[in-house]
Amino acid sequence: MNVTSAEAYSKQQSELFEKWKNTNKHQGNIFNYDGIVNPEVWFSERTSNKKILFILKEAYHSDDAEYEEKCGLEYSLVNDLKENAIHSAMWNRVAEWANGIYECCDGNNPDFSSLDFEKTKESLNRIAIINLKKSGGTSTSNDENISEYVLEDKEFLYKQITLINPDVIVCGYTFKWFCEIVDFSPTKETTLTTWGYKWNGKTIIDYYHPANQFPALLNFYGLMAVFSRAYSSLNENTEFALQIKKIQASDPTKTVHTENMINTYLETNEYENAAKYADELLSSGASSHIAWFAKALFAEQKKTPDDTITALRCYKKMISSDDLDINKLPFVKDKILNNVNI
């Protein structure tokens, strides 16, 4: 089902939705049309090799009865995005993420502070969206309920994904259902990096839902860190991959932003997440005492003393002995008192 034109896509998508909306699960409910936002742009050279699909949970109408009276039993998310663009905080975040990924694909190092609103808004015109639950959406998603819809609509969802045929898929807390739909089980060979995988030559990112409550900056740089490593690993011989490796190894801005993410997680005692970003930073060749600091905290939490000592030694090498923060690392006192050489 590999289509190469906007006209062919629109025809096949319409045929698919006509069958889909008339199944027992969706009859009598508002059916949510989604997919490629602007097929003309999607199938143009401009989006070549960087087609992004976001897989989300469900579309929600605050008053279905009122909407049904006004618009009938159909809602077009793609038309809504084309006409209204960024009309909520969630879609603003999706636009930011898409803009950052496009920048990465062009070999640039995306900077959250310099995001241009008009350019970011225009990014929505270049993406595709799939909601797993095509009718009966609620304001708070229920995983068990979504699983029922996925089980019922698995064949339709698989056809929709393959019809869209993206280069990059960002799963907004929907990765487990994506795996179920396409029969994908991550292995060592298909894992590109933490939260990054390859499937059928595509880059798959397992990430948070865009409506999550983490700060926008943390969301943005977290996704960029995962995507840049996964995409460059999948395309390791391309100019893009070489550029990303160069950025990761030498760009001080990248180091600062990643360290900010590490600090954010440390402040909330989320040591495992802090350690994940620390690993990303250190594996890029960057030198960072805060990264070793995070690894030490996580190792201590896991009660792996050898890893703790290794991390502390690396941490201590990068700072003066006077700066070793005993208050932040209370367990260091015990190791010193027990004559453990760090």
What is the helix content?
A: 40-55%
CATH architecture of the largest domain: 3-Layer(aba) Sandwich
Measure the end-to-end span.
Answer: 60 Å
Please give the domain count. 2
Tally of separate helices: 15
Q: Taking strands numbered 1, 2, ... along the chain, how are they ordered across the largest sheet?
A: 2-5-3-6-9-8-7
General form: globular
Main sheet specs: 7 strands, mixed
Sequence stretches where pLDDT stays below 50 over 5 or more residues = 320-324, 335-342
| Rounded average pLDDT | 81
Instruction: Tell me the radius of gyration.
Output: 23 Å
Q: Can you count the beta strands? A: 9
Instruction: Classify the beta-strand content into a percent band.
Output: 5-15%
Write the layout of secondary structure elements.
Blueprint: H1 6-21, E1 31-33, E2 35-36, H2 39-42, E3 52-58, H3 64-71, E4 74-76, H4 77-84, H5 89-105, H6 117-123, E5 128-133, H7 143-164, E6 168-172, H8 175-182, E7 191-193, E8 196-199, E9 202-207, H9 216-234, H10 239-250, H11 252-267, H12 271-283, H13 289-302, H14 305-317, H15 330-337
Describe this protein's structure:
The protein is built from 15 helices and nine strands. Helix content is 54%, strand content 11%. It folds into two domains: 6-244, Uracil-DNA Glycosylase, subunit E; 253-337, Alpha Horseshoe (Serine Threonine Protein Phosphatase 5, Tetratricopeptide repeat). The longest helix is centred in the middle third of the chain and has 22 residues, at 143-164. The chain has 342 residues and is of the alpha/beta class. The chain starts with 5 loop residues before the first helix and ends in a 5-residue tail after the last helix. Strand 7 and strand 8 form a beta hairpin. The strands form two sheets. The protein has a seven-stranded mixed β-sheet with strand order 2-5-3-6-9-8-7, sandwiched between helices. The chain has a two-stranded parallel ribbon with strand order 1-4. The protein is globular and about 65 Å long.
